[in-house]
Automatic annotation (TrEMBL), chains A, B, C, D, E, F:
Source species, domain of life: Bacteria
Gene Ontology process terms (BP): L-histidine metabolic process
Protein name: Hut operon positive regulatory protein
UniProt entry tagged with the keyword Transcription: yes
Annotated InterPro entries: Regulatory_HutP (IPR015111), Regulatory_HutP_sf (IPR036482)
Alphabetized UniProt keyword annotations: Activator, Histidine metabolism, RNA-binding, Transcription, Transcription regulation
Lineage: Bacteria, Bacillati, Bacillota, Bacilli, Bacillales
């Protein structure tokens, strides 16, 4: 039977709290590769390119292989669907976001043949483009890599 | 200026960890009303009715007023959109979910005239209807009540 | 230049008010073929089949030609999208509807070569499956036939 | 039991006909606050900002409270979903709209504890960006405020 | 009973292979009107306008009648939904496409009263805006005209 | 630079024509693993389970690894989105499908480190649940495995 390390929970704790708290709550994840960052925008493509660029620059995915870009891209898109809750759109429908992001890469299943997976967490605020007229939002995407 | 208590983060920590950890990480939320529960299903309407029933039974929303049911309903639906990431469907597309849910009700804004808001968090697994063939998923919905 | 008779407005007035009021407000539509009916359900396919069956039985579309069924089907689907506002689902997400429907068929454009078009209006309530816990909803679909 | 004044019907009659006709057909709505306006655009955010700006300027929602902006925003988005029928997009998919809008605020339920609700109606034409190559479209959104 | 010539298959073979191969595989389609073309873009509206412009210029649809524009538009939109697989968006979510398109117009049903129909095929690549980081994609839309 | 063998085109030719024609048109794909089959249904989950079961039984994916099930599942879902063109629903909106399916697994990129990918093609008819009242539909999904 396959047993699972919760890389999605770990990614989410990294955006909700901070590296220290997340690692303390989930010591089993210390082998995982992680990155965290921030992005504020009215364009979905800025969210995608910010996470992709950070992931490539910090070596969480290979720059040269499409396979890894493809895996990360779909994980980001799933996380963005959580953020936008039903309509894959922000600026076009007058919303702006301020987000913290985290990417976690590692082997979550006990059976090592399940290989590596990637988790993308987005957490922050969404709302009108006026300070304070916003509420929280969260998204998580997971894919095999 | 309006300052915000993160009820969405609190709701999410309640599903990711437990009441003790969530309260310890966010002592500013101790005034908030909360419920937590669990649901495993292949039908979206079971997710919705489980959260609604728990919320009514434990008095987090009024049984008699449509206004409160309406606010909770849309918060649940937004959380479900995060869980399903783009397609509002589970059993119909051969997916099953095992979820922990939390509902938080309280006043997140410093300006008391912003009134009460409600946050619904869903966290667990989604996947094929075979044990182990699943990965994590998360959703958060927030609404004024 | 093409000038337009508002068959969508006419169909909507038929569901919002009644035949007498609609005809009085839009005397220019007296040549149009119309049907009106009612449907209460938790299944989208019941909405579709109720409108299609009524339209065939009262001769607003031909029973034998797929072409006309195809045109009506897509007009109904567009109206249903207005009713459900973003998620093409009712019972699966715990909603029930009580609707009045109207179908209008005729030539809305001054240029007769634009031929016949069809308008489908749906108006009524959507909400929790509990009397009173519901609000209004409307949808309109238009297609060439 | 809760009895309902049809604020959605009233909002729709305001966009389909005019203030005089709408008031005559629904005298029970005379206490409701209303605004009407027009917008022609290829951008969804122009529809949203036009309705929001008019609503704030004419005092139908409070300028300072996010709560009211949030309620109106989601009502507009639901109405826009009716207009676009399935794809929340206009200019990006080569469509342009010419719309009349109406916002109605008031207490539709007999039980006064249900409080105030808001209805947003959009009615007009959608089509290719060429005069005459267009047909009608309608949308309605309703929310508690 | 209505028998069918597969205009969708013919349109798809025109984009997958070439006119000679397609005609050889489907000699029954030789009466059909066809056009083929190419488009590379990050904007959905460029796909739509390229196909519409080619179809008008080569006389596959009438320039003056909205009816035919309306039929073609919805066929294109359905094909685009196949290309984008769930989210009607390309550049906004950091995707670029390189597509071959084909439009076929003719009478696919044995019963001549079913009249003319139109098929739109799109085939090519979708992916990151970097050469090689892309995979294939296909879409087909069919409508009565 | 990565060069590509068109596994999506190959999968599509397998559903549009037959194994002999597909292989003759694309001799470069002879190393690829393939399966073909048929399904007629009003339920999306029957499409998914038919393709998954055939793929496992004929050894195109591993029965024991979730990783491969996950890759195939998302490829099927993308193909289904092409079939349903915008609404991930069939029976619920009164549509029935008769489909041929093909799955292709192999290394499409020249750079062998890009590894194996999977393509799922669906082609057939969609329409009212009445013989003849239907038209063609196509879908293609591609994923790394």
């Amino acid at each position: 039977m396959t047993e699972q390390i919760s890389i999605g929970k770990y990614a989410t704790l990294l955006t909700l709290t901070n590296k220290e708290t997340a690692k303390q709550l989930m010591p089993q994840c210390e082998q995982m590769q992680i990155i965290v960052g921030k992005i504020g925008t009215m364009s979905l493509n800025k969210i995608i390119s910010s996470v992709e660029t950070a992931a490539r620059r910090e070596g969480i995915i290979s720059e040269s292989h499409y396979r890894e870009t493809h895996a990360l891209y779909h994980a980001i898109l799933e996380a963005v669907n959580g953020i936008t809750r039903g309509e894959l759109s922000i600026g076009e429908i007058m919303r702006t976001v301020g987000l913290k992001f985290a990417v976690v890469r590692g082997c979550p299943y006990e059976d090592q043949e399940e290989g590596e997976w990637i988790a993308v967490s987005l957490y922050g605020t969404i709302g009108a483009p006026i300070k304070g007229k916003e509420h929280e939002t969260i998204g998580l995407g997971i894919n095999h890599i």
